[in-house]
C-alpha cells in the first residue's frame, strides 16, 4: 500500500479505478477498511481513494497532534500531493466531521459533499454529547481499549447474522494505539462548525440510518441549515450503514452522483 508524506506524517492510502474522484474518510478508531463494500462497486466508474487518517490504521500516530482541523489540513495536502483538484468527499462519522470542515475551509476542492451518520457540531450535542464524552473517557480509563472495542462493535452490529462484521470491526478498533484513539476522540468532541454550516454551498447528501445513535430529526435539523442539501434515510441500519447495509448505501450514493 502506498504512503504519502504530508507535513511531518505519512498517510497510508489505496487508489482504485479511473474517473471523477471519490475520497472516502473512515470513522473514529477504524481504518480505510470501513469502505471495503464501496470500493469494488464505485471503482468501476470512479477513481476511489481510501486513506487512513492520522493516528489510525497504517498512518503515522503522532504523540499530541490531533483534531479535526489538523486532519482536514492532511486531506487538503494529500489531494495536492496527488494533483487532485476536485473530489466528492464522503465522510462517515468522524470522517463526516472532516468532510464538513473541508467544505467550510476549502470548498473549491469539492464536487460534492456526502455526510454519513455524522453531524456538524460534536461540541454542541447537548446531554447526548456530554454523556458520550464523560462515559467513554471513563470506560477507556477503567476498562481499556479492548473492552471498549468489544462494546462499540456489539452496539453497531448486534444481530446474529452480523457476527463477521462485528468481529472485523472489533479487530480494527482494538488494534488502535490507545493514545491516538484517546486524543482523536477528545479533539473530535471539541469540534464544531457552528454558524459556518450556513455558508456551505456545495451540493450535499446526508445519509442517516433509522437506528443510528442520533435520531433522524437530528439530521433533519442541520440539513435545513445547509443551502444545498438533501437527506436520505436507510432503513434497518445502525451507525455503520456503509458496512451493515452496503447495497442500500451504494445505491443511494450512486443515485445522488448520477443526478449531477
TrEMBL record:
Organism lineage: Bacteria, Pseudomonadati, Bacteroidota, Flavobacteriia, Flavobacteriales
Molecular-function annotations in GO: hydrolase activity
Keywords: Hydrolase
InterPro entries in UniProt: AB_hydrolase_1, AB_hydrolase_fold, AB_hydrolase_sf
Protein name per the record: Alpha/beta fold hydrolase
AB hydrolase-1 domain sequence ranges: 20-131
SUPFAM superfamilies, alphabetized: alpha/beta-Hydrolases
Coiled coil ranges: none
Amino acid at each position: 500500500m502506498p504512503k504519502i508524506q504530508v507535513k511531518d506524517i505519512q498517510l497510508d492510502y489505496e487508489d482504485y479505478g479511473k474517473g471523477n474522484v471519490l475520497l472516502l474518510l473512515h470513522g473514529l478508531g477504524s481504518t480505510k477498511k470501513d469502505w471495503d463494500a464501496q470500493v469494488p462497486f464505485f471503482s468501476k466508474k470512479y477513481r476511489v481513494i481510501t486513506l487512513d487518517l492520522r493516528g489510525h490504521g497504517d498512518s503515522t500516530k503522532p504523540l499530541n497532534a490531533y483534531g479535526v482541523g489538523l486532519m482536514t489540513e492532511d486531506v487538503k495536502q494529500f489531494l495536492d500531493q496527488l494533483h487532485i483538484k476536485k473530489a466528492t468527499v464522503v465522510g462517515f462519522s468522524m470522517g463526516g466531521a472532516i468532510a464538513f470542515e473541508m467544505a467550510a475551509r476549502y470548498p473549491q476542492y469539492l464536487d460534492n459533499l456526502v455526510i454519513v451518520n455524522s453531524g456538524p457540531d460534536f461540541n454542541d450535542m447537548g446531554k447526548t454529547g456530554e454523556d458520550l464524552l464523560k462515559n467513554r473517557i471513563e470506560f477507556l480509563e477503567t476498562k481499556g481499549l479492548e473492552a471498549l472495542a468489544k462494546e462499540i462493535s456489539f452496539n453497531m452490529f448486534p444481530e446474529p447474522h452480523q457476527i463477521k462484521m462485528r468481529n472485523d470491526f472489533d479487530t480494527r478498533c482494538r488494534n488502535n494505539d490507545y493514545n491516538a484513539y484517546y486524543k482523536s476522540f477528545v479533539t473530535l468532541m471539541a469540534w464544531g462548525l457552528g454558524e459556518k454550516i450556513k455558508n456551505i454551498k456545495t451540493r450535499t447528501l446526508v445519509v442517516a440510518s433509522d437506528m443510528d445513535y442520533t435520531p433522524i430529526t437530528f439530521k433533519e435539523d442541520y440539513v435545513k441549515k445547509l443551502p444545498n442539501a438533501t437527506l436520505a434515510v436507510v432503513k434497518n441500519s445502525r451507525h455503520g450503514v456503509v458496512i451493515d447495509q452496503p447495497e442500500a448505501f451504494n445505491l443511494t450514493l450512486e443515485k445522488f452522483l448520477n443526478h449531477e
